[in-house]
Write the structure tokens for this entry.
Amino acid sequence: MDFLPPDFSPAYPEIFLLVMVCVVLLADLVAGENRRYIAYLLSQMALFGCALLTFITFSAETTYTFSGMFVDDAMADILKLMVYITVAAVLVYSRSYISVRGMFTGEFFSLVLFATLGMMVMISASHFLTLYLGLELLSLSLYALVALQRDNATATEAAMKFFVLGALASGFLLYGMSMVYGATGSLHIADITQAIQSGVISHEVLVVGLVFIVAGISFKLSAAPFHMWAPDVYQGAPTAITLFIGSAPKLAAFGFVMRLLVDGLGEMVADWQGMLIILAVMSMAVGNIAAIAQTNIKRMLAYSTISHMGFLILGFISADTNGYSSAMFYVIAYVLMTLGTFAIIMILSREGFEAENIDDFKGLNKRNPWYAFVTMLLMLSMAGIPPMIGFYAKLSVLQAVLSAGFIWLAIVAVLLSVIGAFYYLRIVKLMYFDEPVSNEPILPHGDVKVLISVNGLAVIALGIFPQMLMGLSLYAIQNSM
Amino acid sequence: MLLGFPLLSLVIWLPILIGLLVFATGGDRNAPMARLIAIIGSVLGFLVAIPLYTQFDPALSTMQFVEKHVWFERFNVHYHLGVDGISMPLILLNCFITPLVVMAGWEVIRERVSQYMGAFLVMSGIVNGVFSSLDTILFYTFWEASLIPMFLIIGIWGGPNRVYAAIKFFLYTLLGSLLMLVAFIYLYQASDGSFSILDYHHLPLPIEPQILIFLAFLLAFAVKVPMWPVHTWLPDAHVEAPTGGSVLLAAILLKMGGYGFLRFSLPIVPDASQYLAGMMIALSLIAVVYIGLVALMQVDMKKLIAYSSIAHMGFVTLGFFLFNAYGLEGAMVQMISHGFISAAMFLCVGVLYDRLHSRQIADYGGVVNKMPVFAAFFMLFAMANAGLPGTSGFVGEFMVIMGAVKVNFWYAFLAATTLIFGAAYTLWLYKRVIFGEVASPAVEGLKDISKREFAILAILAISVLWLGVYPFPLTEVMHATVNELLMHVANSKL
């Protein structure tokens, strides 16, 4: 039998990134202590190169390669482009933060890039093993990143929790996958769909598998009741790492859910719909209510993330293009807001001082009106107040929920988001109504200054003109279903 | 002449852009500049709104000055503007009040002047957007966006308990409006993908959804009006807000609630409106009678006027749900007139507060001896607040009472008690503050109003008297629209 080499072209960005990670590691080794910026520049170049490759090879066609284990479709390309932009922004935001804390090392950059590679593989997987491979590559890099400051006790503790719970979640997921494999006899997503469609598969076995898969997904999404790790990890990890964990991986998680539940187990929508409703309502309730009691801003944002994930899950409930594209729009909007918020926390921190308490936002309007304004935009966007993008994201998800006929669910969601508005408003209140506790000047680097401004203005500009991202999400989903 | 010229867009965006310009003047070193740009901007905002009145065709009941562009096609949302006889007077009122508010804060606001002035201008543009949006998502965007400047105005420049009041104000209104949003999305599904308010006016709906939609709207608008029993945020917000904030809140923001009933509740769910009219009338009468009695007991001047606002707005909602021309037009006149009178009352309290830094009635007494000109103005506005014939306060209340008599004598009877209670709490307030012996050395040291304050109060006094003696220019423009609305409501949508 002849050996036919697989078509590598759909995976060019992944291959390129893998090569570049090795280059970053080697270059950093050679460059030595004083020229760490080389690793930084190489990483940015790697992301830019990936973006270029993805952009050039972009097409609305769906192509499979590696014996159907890897897929390249419109959704994958668009999500990947978002991931590159997010990771590049993360690197810009965290550069000065990590350099004053002794983390500006080749390891940081190579781990971030490995995590990025993991996300890309997850997004493009069309086989349970590929999915799992990408997920583990992402997770293991994240565990290591959290523990990067090895003398920092809280960070190490957070890494430990993250690792143990993450491993447990992976176990759940694998167990669920094995049940599905046992029932259908395949790990190929396309084959699984076909097998389920044929109707001869034992429904009970599939449902048991599904329960474990959904539990695993909820762990990764940090949806209640599997959210326990998020507050501890968000709080314990260095802020730059929290920023990374809170942003790009959510895009990948969205892709993951799409591949697993929609592409793979789409036939079982009647079974997972109910589970997702419970997850969504619990996440919104737990996230919004617990966030009120927090005094640590990172912990508060962890709970806020949990509630946002609940809203994101709502998008899947209608189980149609409309709903999925709303969820995709929501996750992009969420990432944009998270990036800006953590960036602000980082510029408020300085050497030897972490801006971790919400009280550190006191009087920001007096210290620097522009950053206070940007933070206000971000907070109001998270609370879902128009004309910020967060509102249009909520609008599209609610619209999908109502189109599926769940009026009560929409009402529960809006009532819980009123509770959520309180703690976002509290930040605005601290910035605008209170006197500053410190008058330390806020002096971010030029690139950070520009990027934060762009990020803040994007929250309002993309809100006033939401068509672009909405249309992009719709296009991605329509061309991948 | 103005055909095709985006006049409404100008009326909305000019104040917002100038407001942003005022923000850009930065710190308090440039305060004079900020004040100057703000006053020019607000006057310009009023001037560009005047053609809305002069070019308005009062014979038409349809939307005028219409602009329609696609905003985002994903959900078929349009940037759709237009005004009719209901919204146009409200826009003019808003543009008229804004320069007065800017002037009222001219010397008093010394901290973060540019942010204060800018917030009012942005607010003015946003409110114009609320009154002229014909697309629900556009409407909702302006509606919610209006919370942000007001939240900051109360929270930054307000009194001691401002944080509590600001957050209460924000969350109360947000809760109401989010349910309205759910109703909008429901209507979007029911109308096969349209967010246009005018489409909803002709959308047939069964009675159960109509009632649910009515209740969702009710929560949003009742909180804004505010109606009893969701009024509790208003006294807090008023007491803590700076004078300009109180004026804006009473004169303009409360009207957003009233406007909502006319634009949404009555025409979109007419059957539910008729069905639940009894409840609405009951709530309105409770506001008129009970809140009138509550106002009588207040020891804080601003709180007293806040409660009197709630009672007067009770007349507005009463008028809406009588379903006759007297009631509806009376309610509209009452809204505009209350805009002038409440603005004037809060400005009068502001004049006293700026001098003595107290709102307690007990701290005053004998002010007339020291501030005769002020006392004369305050007298006029107090009389108008009590509904004295010849002032604008009388016209609206009288028309609503006329409308109520046609429906049920007892409605009219209860509503008419306001003429007693209103006179009682306003005149008693006036007597305690203005007349009598000079109460304290602080009052002894009072100076009469400055030219700036005189100008503001004189403009309002003229408006109050003009509307009281000759309301025709106002009723003329709303006549066709009101009749059309009444006919529309009379047709069942079942």
Q: What stands out?
A: The radius of gyration of chain B is 21 Å.
